[in-house]
C-alpha cells in the first residue's frame, strides 16, 4: 500500500484550508451509535492547493454559497428543515484574506455536487472546473428551473469550462486506491475516484513536500471519524436521507472508508474530512487556514 517515492526535484503542493460555511448535522443520520438526536455545527471545508513549480492555483470544493436562499427550492427546503447552514465567510471571502480573488484560481475541483460542496460556480468565471465523470448522471434528468424538483441549478457547473473525468483518462492504482489520475503528470496531485457517497464523488491525494509527505482530502467519504476508526458503522433508515443511508451506495461507501483507513497507515499521510469538526476546532484561526498553510507531516 506504499505511495510513490519522490523523484529528484519532486514538485509538490502547499495546501491551505478555506472557511466555506457551516452545516448542522444530526449524527443519528451518519453513525449507528450516535448518543442523541443532537445536531452539531460542522465545517464544510474547502482547500487551496498551490503547485510548487507551475504555480497553478487549485481549489477543492466551494462549500456553501453565501446567498443560499437563491438555491433551487428543493435545496432551500432542505437547508431550512434538514441541514441548516451558517455562512459567516465563503470561499471568496477566505481567498481575499490572502490577497486572492476567484479570478486568480486556475482550477476548481468539486468533490461532488451536493449544495454544501458546490458553492456558487458563477463567482469563478475564469476557472476550469473538474468533476467526476458520473456527475453527468445527476444532471441528465434535468436541472432547475427546467426541472422544478431538482436540487441542482442550471449554473452549478459552467458547461464550456467543465471537465468530466471519465474512463477516457489514464487511471492508475495508487496505494489502496484502484483509480487515481495524476492531474499534472508529475506525481504532485492525484484525483481519486471515490465511489459510494454520490455519483461522481472524488477525493484528492496531494504530495505536500519534496521528501515524501502527503495529505488526503476525503470529502464526504466519511462524515465522522468514528466511521474511519471503526467505532461506528454507517447509519441506516433515517427519514432525513434521500437514500436509506447518507450514501447513494452503502457497500461502495464502506469500501472507500476502508481504503482511507489503509492510507492512514502509510507514514506521513494526513487525512482531513470535509466536515472534520475535530480538525477544525483544533486549527480554526491558526496558520492552517489561508494565507497560512497546513504543515506537512
From TrEMBL:
Name of the protein: Metallo-beta-lactamase domain-containing protein
Cofactor: Zn(2+)
Domain Metallo-beta-lactamase: start-end pairs: 43-275
Keywords: Hydrolase, Metal-binding, Zinc
Pfam family, one: Lactamase_B
Domain of life: Eukaryota
InterPro entries found in the cross-reference section: MBL_superfamily_lactonases (IPR051013), Metallo-B-lactamas (IPR001279), RibonucZ/Hydroxyglut_hydro (IPR036866)
Gene3D superfamilies: Ribonuclease Z/Hydroxyacylglutathione hydrolase-like (3.60.15.10)
Gene Ontology molecular function terms on file: hydrolase activity; metal ion binding
Family, per entry: Belongs to the metallo-beta-lactamase superfamily.
Amino acid at each position: 500500500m506504499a505511495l510513490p517515492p519522490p523523484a529528484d526535484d519532486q514538485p509538490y503542493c502547499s495546501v491551505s484550508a478555506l472557511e466555506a460555511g457551516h452545516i448542522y448535522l444530526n449524527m443519528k443520520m451518519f453513525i449507528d451509535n450516535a448518543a442523541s438526536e443532537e445536531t452539531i455545527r460542522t465545517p464544510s471545508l474547502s482547500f487551496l492547493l498551490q503547485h510548487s513549480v507551475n504555480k497553478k492555483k487549485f481549489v477543492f470544493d466551494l462549500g456553501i454559497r453565501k446567498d443560499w436562499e437563491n438555491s433551487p427550492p428543493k435545496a432551500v427546503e432542505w437547508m431550512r428543515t434538514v441541514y441548516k447552514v451558517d455562512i459567516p465567510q465563503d470561499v471568496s471571502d477566505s481567498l481575499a484574506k490572502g490577497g486572492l480573488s476567484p479570478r486568480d484560481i486556475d482550477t476548481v475541483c468539486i468533490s461532488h455536487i451536493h449544495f454544501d460542496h458546490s458553492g456558487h460556480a458563477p463567482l469563478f468565471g475564469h476557472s476550469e472546473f473538474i468533476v467526476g465523470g458520473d456527475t453527468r448522471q445527476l444532471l441528465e434528468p434535468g436541472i432547475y428551473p427546467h426541472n422544478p424538483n431538482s436540487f441542482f441549478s442550471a449554473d452549478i457547473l459552467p458547461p464550456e469550462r467543465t471537465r468530466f473525468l471519465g474512463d477516457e483518462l489514464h487511471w492508475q492504482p495508487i496505494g489502496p486506491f484502484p483509480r487515481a489520475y495524476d492531474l499534472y503528470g508529475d506525481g504532485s496531485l492525484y484525483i481519486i475516484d471515490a465511489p459510494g457517497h454520490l455519483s461522481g464523488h472524488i477525493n484528492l491525494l496531494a504530495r505536500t513536500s519534496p521528501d515524501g509527505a502527503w495529505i488526503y482530502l476525503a470529502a464526504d467519504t466519511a462524515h465522522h471519524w468514528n466511521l474511519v476508526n471503526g467505532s461506528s458503522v454507517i447509519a441506516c433508515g433515517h427519514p432525513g436521507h434521500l437514500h436509506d443511508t447518507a450514501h447513494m451506495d452503502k457497500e461502495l461507501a464502506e469500501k472507500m472508508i476502508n481504503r482511507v483507513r489503509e492510507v492512514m497507515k502509510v507514514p506521513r499521510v494526513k487525512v482531513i474530512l470535509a466536515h472534520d469538526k475535530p480538525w477544525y476546532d483544533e486549527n480554526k484561526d491558526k496558520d492552517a487556514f489561508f494565507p497560512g498553510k497546513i504543515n506537512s507531516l
